[in-house]
Amino acid sequence: MICKEAFNVLTDLVTKAKIAGADAADAFLINKMSLSVMFRLGRLEEIKRSESMDISLRVFIGNRQAIVSSSDWSCKALDELIDRVVRMARIVPKDPFCGLADPSQLVINTISLDICDPIDPTSDVLIDWTRRAEDSARSVLGVTNSDGAEAGYARKMIVLIGSNGMKCTYNVSKISGSVSVLAGNIFDGMERDYDFSSAVYFSDLKLPEDIGYSAGHRAVNRLRSHKVCTTQVPIVFDSRVSNELLGHLSNSINGYAIARGASFLKNSLNKQIFPSDVTIIDDPHRQRGLHSKPCDDEGVINSCRNIVENGVLTTWILDLCSSRQLGMETTGHASRGISSFLSPSATNFYMKPGIVTPTEIISNIVDGFYVTELFGIGVNNVTGDYSRGATGFWISKGEITYPVSEVTIAGNLKEMFLHLTPANDLFHYYGFDAPTVLIDGMTVAGI
């Protein structure tokens, strides 16, 4: 379906919903194509392609709202969808904070973000990428087996139409590739590790040989791991895992968590929560950003914001509903799925790099732990208590020494944030990104 046809269908749905008794309505469409391949032990193991086109219709009757989705585009199915969602909206509980954006809040002229690759990579291109990545990884001395290499591409057309005048469409694409291999043997021990790359454009993806070489050496370097005694030491989070700290921050300043009082940062707005050299940015307009979008999913104007500036928390992450609950203005962070109600969500969320290198940070540590992988979900968003399984390398006298496994790291996020030092090696891997960071005074629980 081309954009003009999608606009016409969604506009017709919204119009018919109002005729059927809705006070207001909006419609949301995702037209998606995806392609993925898996290559393992020198052979193509799997190739998948899918196409889908889904629509959701949300209606409001007074302070009540309902949402229904469908992938059936027949006239009969769409008429039934309208009837069903209007009947639902008449009987659901009231929500005094629901409702569409005021027309003055809507984006008028969207900007170009260069977030859709004009050339779709073919299956042959993805197969070649995975083959080269796995061949490179398996060529590393000490690698003995492979979990395979994967590559996936997806392209989406997104259309938003609302009875309040909302009218927005844009196209996005994402390409990713990864490889995972094993080193060692069953007698002396085996270790697994991986590397990956993701981008909007295929041309921006890392070379498969570089990904494979990195994955192979990461796995080999983890062989003959040690256990350590329980102790309290500085912990360095590798840039590949430090982004998870930003995920915990995002969850804790989400408008719905704040409205419920279910966040350890609920009383921290406009207060110091990081050292003064830490700034954290959310930028929905980053060129070729993995999570870039020209407006939020309520059609509201969005913009680049310093969420944390010089260590001070400046704002919550809000959509219309949560902002009304808190008596504030939306920050343009509404996000939605086809069959779910909206909720606030960050976009390209990243910590500005510091001025010291990771090597300089490590060189000042007498004893510490360099974390390269985290496991489990042991974070309490209400109290900030933090406990995760981890693997990595022990730091001794300013040098990375032997590999460490089967340990747990623990602390409290409020204290961890206040004692964080960022390095200068920021890379945009995930859309949520941070450089290598040092956190003083955490507990490593071992033997």
Question: What does this protein structure show overall?
Answer:
- With 447 residues, this protein is α+β, with helices and mostly antiparallel strands.
- It folds into two domains: 3-219, PmbA/TldD fold (2-Layer Sandwich); 225-447, no CATH class.
- It is built from nine helices and 19 strands.
- The protein has helices at residues 3-19, 75-91, 123-138, 208-221, 243-252, 255-260, 320-326, 358-363, 413-418; strands at 24-40, 43-61, 64-70, 143-162, 167-185, 189-199, 231-237, 280-282, 305-309, 312-313, 334-335, 343-344, 349-351, 367-375, 385-396, 399-412, 420-422, 432-433, 437-445.
- The strands form four sheets. A six-stranded antiparallel sheet has the order 3-2-1-4-5-6.
- A hairpin with a 2-residue loop joins strand 9 (305-309) and strand 10 (312-313).
- The mean pLDDT is 95.
Order of helices and strands: HEEEHHEEEHEHHEEEHEEEHEEEHEEE
Percent range of helical residues = 10-25%
Which percent band covers the strand fraction? 35-45%
Q: Give the strand order, joined by hyphens, for the main sheet.
A: 3-2-1-4-5-6
Helix and strand topology:
Blueprint: H1 3-19, E1 24-40, E2 43-61, E3 64-70, H2 75-91, H3 123-138, E4 143-162, E5 167-185, E6 189-199, H4 208-221, E7 231-237, H5 243-252, H6 255-260, E8 280-282, E9 305-309, E10 312-313, H7 320-326, E11 334-335, E12 343-344, E13 349-351, H8 358-363, E14 367-375, E15 385-396, E16 399-412, H9 413-418, E17 420-422, E18 432-433, E19 437-445
Parallel strand pairs: 7-14, 13-18
Antiparallel strand pairs: 1-2, 1-4, 2-3, 4-5, 5-6, 7-19, 8-9, 8-13, 9-10, 11-12, 14-15, 15-16, 16-19, 17-19
